[in-house]
Amino acid sequence: MLDSNHFWLLGTALASGVFWLVAYILIIYRGFKDQTYGMPIVAFIGNIAWEFIFGLGIESGCAASWSSCPAAIIQARNFIWLLFDFVILYTILKFGRRYFTGFLNKYFNAVVIGGIVVAGLLIYAIVQEFWIKNLWGVVINGSTPEFLPLTRQGGSYYTGFGLNVIMSILFVFMIYRRGNVDGQSVYIAISKWLGTVAAYGFMLADGIQTPVVNVLYAIVFVFDLLYIKMVYDQSRREGHDPWRRA
């Protein structure tokens, strides 16, 4: 039996998948065109680790509150993101070393790969260890527990939104530090923002408007809009038409 809001949940989940996939594709395009990487490295490390866990089915991307969740579709969405992340990883390893000096320059590849492993272990540990208040009245084994483990409810949500906060802040710092729009475009920034809007629409449909989720979303929303403006303004300063530069 389908949940009453099943199609709203599915629609927003897939919309976020499409918008973020567009952002990934454009990041890859600009990365190769500008001979650089287009996603902040620290944010990418957490991002690809998350997609390993939820794209390979190590943890389920479905929440217990969404009883009719099509697990195969949600995992496929995450797996597709993972595939494109491998291409972004290639651009980071190929073009990223020159941005660093000393130890980070010498052992750049090892630091990036090692960071992915550490991030993956940390995300997995958080999902295993932390619990969330059972706001939905989910029944497990005939009873309604006061708290649910993140491995059953919201593990992908909370870790995903936490990583999104890091990514949004670091995108702003990346363009500020570089002082140019290499690897970046208005369309990347807008696609990321729309993906986050769709993800929050999913949260609304699932009834997970906790203070933590709302604060995380507000931070992402503000920084994503700031990033859009910064990319637009910097493009104009460099003589590019922001709307003609994919």
Any overview of this molecule?
There is one protein chain. By secondary structure, this protein is an all-alpha fold. The protein is globular and about 60 Å long. The longest helix has 29 residues, at 6-34. The protein is 68% helix and 2% strand.
Order of helices and strands: HHHHHEEHHH
The chain-level mean pLDDT equals 94
What's the tally of helices?
A: 8
% residues in beta strands: under 5%
Uncertain segments are none
Strand order, sheet with most strands: 1-2
**Total domain units:** 1
Number of strands: 2
SS content category? mainly alpha
For the CA atoms, what is the radius of gyration? Answer: 19 Å
User: Roughly how many Å apart are the termini?
Assistant: 43 Å
Helix content: 55-70%
What profile does the largest beta sheet have?
Answer: 2 strands, antiparallel
Overall form: globular
SSE layout and pairings?
Layout: H1 6-34, H2 41-55, H3 71-95, H4 102-106, H5 108-129, E1 131-133, E2 147-149, H6 155-178, H7 186-206, H8 211-237
Antiparallel strand pairs: 1-2
Helix pairs in contact: 1-3, 1-7, 2-3, 2-5, 2-6, 6-8, 7-8
How would you briefly describe this protein structure?
With 246 residues, the protein is mainly alpha-helical. The protein is built from eight helices and two strands, in the order H-H-H-H-H-E-E-H-H-H.
